[in-house]
Amino acid sequence: MTTREEAARLDAAGPATGWRERFALPEGVVYLDGNSLGALPVGVADRLVRVATHEWGRDLITSWNPTAAGGDWISLARRVGMRIAPLIGAAPGDVHVGDSTSVSLFKTMVAALRLRPGRRVLVVEPSTFPTDGYVAAGVARLTGAELRWCDPADPAASLDDDVALLSLTHVDFRTGAMYDLPGLSAAAHEAGALVQWDLCHSTGAVPVDLTAAGADLAVGCSYKYLNGGPGAPAFTWVAPALQPDLDQPVQGWMGHASPFAMQRDYEPADGMRRMASGTPPVLALSALDAALDAFDGVTVADLRAVSLSLTDLFIRLVADRLPDVEIVTPREHERRGSQVSLRHADAYGIVQALIARGVVGDFRDPDIARFGFAPLYVRHVDVLDAVDHLVAVLEAGEHRDPRYAVRSTVT
Ligand SMILES: Cc1ncc(COP(=O)(O)O)c(C=O)c1O
Ligand SMILES: Nc1c(O)cccc1C(=O)C[C@H](N)C(=O)O
């Protein structure tokens, strides 16, 4: 059994030294929900104030161009994309930032169908985060393509000559299980299909090398492990070889080759700039830009080492102390993201009772209690404390409190 002293030693000796201080976390809270909403990095509030007062308030519209205060809003999305690129194995100019993940999925799915005109099937995994399936169904309805649900245990079995795109989520939001990104990318290509990865639950916690894997398209949000804040803009990546033929459906003026020439006819900009549609969300991009400072000097390999050490410890302690609780997240490192999910009939009550004790995880219908381990700020001592509280909740029956019989709207 790991003692608190041993856990504290692991925290002090590991590569995570100094990482947690980059966040403004409330005292006494063990935050295990960074896989839904990342914590607040220290520089973000000041940056937002500066952008609002100096760039917007004082410099007004001149801030679209570079100013003494900073400004240069017009290139902000591109600059933020360049900072996300190394976390996903992308070249610096190949990441567009600006829409929600759902809207990004719409654009990339339509674009992928247009890149494979002879094929009309979109393959999606049915237990993925719902928005991926909803958008795929909408795209199918709009384009006349067919949506084919694959077997989650064997997505490659659904590939054939009709498939234009295999679209998968790298790390599953419910179970924390991780797909073999290079292997499934290769399988899609063998069938002549393109492959897209939803990296919402990977980026910033799990190593991803889209270039090495030969993937075609990817999307991901920035409010989870990237800590960009609620509603922070998502990113899109498309393999450089596909960019010249990329034809996305929301062709707006910001994706035009010369937006300020205000021409009548649309002419796409070069490269990923054409993925833009309208005016970029400058305030949200500024928050994200400041949030990414928390990754300065941090390698993805170190993030992964810390993440695995945390999830290993949580899994081991739960297995030892609560043998009746089912751990649904895979034990094998190569199949695990950065969260651990437990199955229990009273999962909702467990999560609420833990929150009342200052341990914040979340619940996913119908019976999953989810715990995310954001390696930049979760410590081994937090893992120990979380499991102590979990054991105490179950022993005292706190999860059966009648207050938890009715669920809140947002879980
Ligand atoms: C895998 C996955 N894809 C997409 C989304 C939704 O993205 P958005 O709300 O940015 O459209 C989420 C979570 O919200 C998610 O977990
Ligand atoms: N995006 C969210 C939101 O606006 C409110 C509440 C939760 C979320 C989430 O991110 C959910 C998340 N994708 C999940 O994995 O469940």
Task: Kindly describe this structure.
The chain is an alpha/beta fold and 411 residues long. It has 2 domains: 123 residues, Alpha-Beta Complex (Aspartate Aminotransferase, domain 1), CATH 3.90.1150; 249 residues, Aspartate Aminotransferase, domain 2 (3-Layer(aba) Sandwich), CATH 3.40.640. The protein has 11 helices and 15 strands. The protein has a 7-stranded mixed β-sheet, with helices on both faces. Strands 11-12-15-14 form a 4-stranded antiparallel β-sheet, with helices on one face. The protein has a two-stranded parallel ribbon with strand order 1-13. Strand 2 and strand 3 form a beta hairpin. The chain is globular, with a radius of gyration of 22 Å. Pyridoxal-5'-phosphate binds next to helix 4 and helix 5. The site of (2S)-2-amino-4-(2-amino-3-hydroxyphenyl)-4-oxobutanoic acid has 5 residues, from loops.
- Rounded mean pLDDT is 97
Per CATH, the class of the largest domain reads: Alpha Beta
Number of E-state strands: 15
CATH topology value of the largest domain: Aspartate Aminotransferase, domain 2
Spatial sequence of strands, sheet with the most strands: 4-10-9-8-7-5-6
**SSE order in H/E notation?**
HEHEEHEHEHEEHEHEEHHEEHEEEH
Q: Judging by the overall fold, what is the CATH architecture of the largest domain?
A: 3-Layer(aba) Sandwich
Name the ligand types. Answer: pyridoxal-5'-phosphate, (2S)-2-amino-4-(2-amino-3-hydroxyphenyl)-4-oxobutanoic acid
| Basic shape | globular
- Low-confidence segments, given as residue ranges, are none
In terms of DSSP E residues, the strand content is 5-15%
Binding site for pyridoxal 5'-phosphate: 101-102, 129-132, 169, 198, 201, 223, 253, 279
Pfam family, one: KYNU_C
Protein name: Kynureninase
Subunit structure: Homodimer.
